[in-house]
């Protein structure tokens, strides 16, 4: 009962936190990511096979080929009401970081407990059947992102204080063999956050943020968006996993989203786009306007994708050239993985003013936005 009373509050908390996203110990340079490319952001995971979502107490997926959204439960007689009988139902308030691995799915949730935020790792078949609790994890209000590897799962999360505006934002490393974990990095500041993460050569790169205003000031100006944004600091942190030591920090990184290609890290900040050389630790500007990075896999290792209020752009890293792909007024791109581009279509019919859409990557590259398909929802949540 206690969990049910706070579901709406927790869901609003997740939406209010600024959006962010997703190869360790001394021997982790040899470790490989289980999925070559995967973008985990809150309760949504984008991969080459599908877009999976765990939200509103249900697990669903979008099949890019058919452009249909379905619950993972394929029992035609199921009413999808009880987590004990339906694999698509998740009895929790805090959940996220869903991941497909072979014929299994994994996710984090505060299910099977009456205590809100007491998270555990769960494993199930692709249809949600044979669900079992693998291990108890940390206590969290919001699961921000995660990286699954063969040996470890790295989870970024936020735990809010019940007494003031301070937060504990942390990275939790879970050893999959030992079935135990620990916090390897933590920020204890007002409105602390740790979001999107990338793992490369034993270094975990993560977007971080916090407010330089006091808890009292935040409370006083909580409805003043300009005040909140003015005092919110966004940075990128590089954590060496063999000794959990921060080896570098890049300040003032704008949206908090970034991409790595070979030894170069790209990010947007203060109406400019920058490239940070991981080897030389030097920054240089590649654009003087406000372009936003789009998540894309390394299908084309020398290419990055951006958008602004008007257009989508392709950036050639080697040639250092920009090319306009298409107008950005109809389709809002979230992620480009494999042969597909996932996003949203502007629509007055959808409850939030948009609905899911998908387009072949080859068509998007050619600027053929008209070939985008609206995702048909076949969810049956009675």
TrEMBL record:
Instruction: Indicate the secretion signal residues.
Output: 1-26
Q: Which UniProt keywords apply?
A: Signal
Q: What protein does this entry describe?
A: Lipoprotein
Q: Please give the organism.
A: Jutongia hominis
